Amino acid sequence: MPTAVLYRMQTDSHICPFGIKSKDLLKRKGYTIEDHPLKNREETEAFKSKHDVSTTPQTFIGDARIGGYDALLDYFNESTLKQEGLTYQPVIAVFSTTFAMALAGSWAMAGGIAQVISLFIAFSMCVLAILKLRDLYAFSNQFVTYDLLAMRWVRYAYIYPFAEAFAGVGMIAGLLPSLVGAVAVTIGAIGAVSVCKAVYFDKRELKCACVGGDSNVPLGLISLTENLMMLGMGAWMIF
Fold it and tell me: In sequence order, what are the residues at sequence separation of 6 or more whose Cβ sits closer than 8 angstroms to the Cβ of residue 80?
């Protein structure tokens, strides 16, 4: 079998994930690995100085230095699931999972299509609220760039995820329909108008905060649909 030499950082306090991934990739490609864990910062810095490199891990095959994990992927013409650029993957993950939850819940309760749709919207709101609540600061930084109310009253950016969670849980339980519906209609209407203004009137290219801050989901039709779903469901609960 061919042999590869791998230098990777593995100290008591830090194990480099890319070193582990490089080792795994080499194994899958059938290489015998001469593994050299760098046990401390001094060893790591000495290695980088000796080979004139700025990062670890580093892989050598034969007389050639392949480089780090990304370079190793290129060497074997492999790809990863790394998200780069704009992506709808977080939104697809939320909506597909909550729709499956809605189908399962409706099946267990012998409900019809109306119940599936109702649970799907409610579950989606709850999961989206969780994603926002996990980092309110990051969410608010993105949300205030396009939401019309949050631009004028920043505290609304911190209230919004709690309101979304309240409405979602209320829809699932079927409690306080007038209050829950009013909250959903209010935040849904403000959100829909804000997205329309930012995207379709002002033609701004922004990222949506629907799955929390620091996402690469583009603000547009998906974001508008989320708000219209809340608005419609809220109106249905009221009337």
Answer: 73
CB count in 10 Å sphere of residue 1: 8
Contact 109, 118 (CB under 8 A): no
**SS3 call for 214:** coil
Query: How far is CA 206 from its chain centroid?
Result: 16
Measured CA angle at 148 (ends 146, 153), to 5 deg: 110
Under a CB-based contact definition with an 8 Å cutoff, are residues 216 and 86 in contact? yes
pLDDT tier at 81 (50, 70, 90 boundaries)?
low
Backbone phi, psi, residue 9, to 5°: -85, 125
CB 199 within 8 A of CB 190: no
pLDDT in tens, 89-147: 777 777 787 887 777 777 767 777 888 888 888 888 888 888 888 888 888 888 888 89
Residue 96 pairs in a beta bridge with none
